[in-house]
Amino acid sequence: MAETGFNPRTFLMRPTKPLIFLIASAAILGLTVSWLAIQYPGFIFYPAPAPINCPLEFDNDTTAVPPTHVGMDYNETLPLRLITYNIRYASKHPVANEKPWDVRCPRLVTQLKFITEGHDSPFICLQEALDSQVHDVQRGLGAGWGHIGRGRDKGETDGEFSPIFYRSSTWSLTRYETRWLSKTPDRPSKGWDAYYNRIVTMGEFAHRQTNTTVIVMSTHFDHMGAIAREHSADLLIKFAKEWSAASEAEVSAVLIGGDFNSAPDDDSYRRMTAPGSGMSDIADLVPDSRKYGNRLTYTSFGEPEYGSARIDFLFIKEPRTALVKSYGVLANQFEDGVLISDHRPVVADMEVLP
């Protein structure tokens, strides 16, 4: 009788030539991809994540507010960063929530170094700096920096400074002067209804490589005298025109930074920006989509009698040969809770025609 039991060998798949070819091809492909991944780590690409719909609309037009000087070639420009910062004087009797200068100083210097890191041509306009504070900031910034300015009172080192710091390795100081915002601007004096002497520090700087010449002014208007602030605005405009006209070089830009103690609806600010004043608020030259940070520049130390306000400004003289690229109001307090100042730093980047 023939054997009829199950024989598993009769059910084995017998390989065919096409199947052998497919298996061999897959093996070769796998070995090839593995070798390429080892030899060239960037060879294997992972699928990009699904796009996230950002609700913001970005304005990439870099000429939204073009320069007012016509017939200029912007193929060769000099990048420049302008900063204004009221650093709060070193009070012997700090108010509530105000830390002493020895606590605020290292944080301020670190912030200034961070803001200017990677920028070859920055200018820092400070306000309320006492002589000792000026030297502290100078030491903190280092030997590559220089500064100009004097105290607003009788002696060179008396009272608050409105100094200008600059990279001395990049800029050569051509001339500088301090004038008082009063009827007698050539000597220490108080103007009109001002509570204190008020000054403007002015400097002319030539770029060491391109010889581009700019004038920078740092000022601090009075906090009490409204009439003094109005006249101070008139004087500032007058000084800017005089200094620009008196230069032996072709001035590429006249830039002003300061604490104006004036909100945009204040008469002194209106005088600064009135038609025919020859001045523009740099913030107005930048689309909102390229403005960074806060809007208000004064925060106080939390005193109930003082509110926040926008009183620190950057101005540029018209007709301008600079293309303003960005504008921002940065922070003055971080996680440690220390208020570096009762003001925030205001920063703008621009490209100036050499």
From TrEMBL:
Keyword Nuclease: no
Keyword annotations of the record: Membrane, Transmembrane, Transmembrane helix
Pfam families the UniProt entry points to: Exo_endo_phos (PF03372)
Entry's transmembrane regions: 19-38
Span of domain Endonuclease/exonuclease/phosphatase: 84-343
Superkingdom: Eukaryota
Stored InterPro entries: CCR4/nocturin_mRNA_transcr, Endo/exonu/phosph_ase_sf, Endo/exonuclease/phosphatase
Gene Ontology molecular function: 3'-5'-RNA exonuclease activity
Protein known as: Endonuclease/exonuclease/phosphatase domain-containing protein
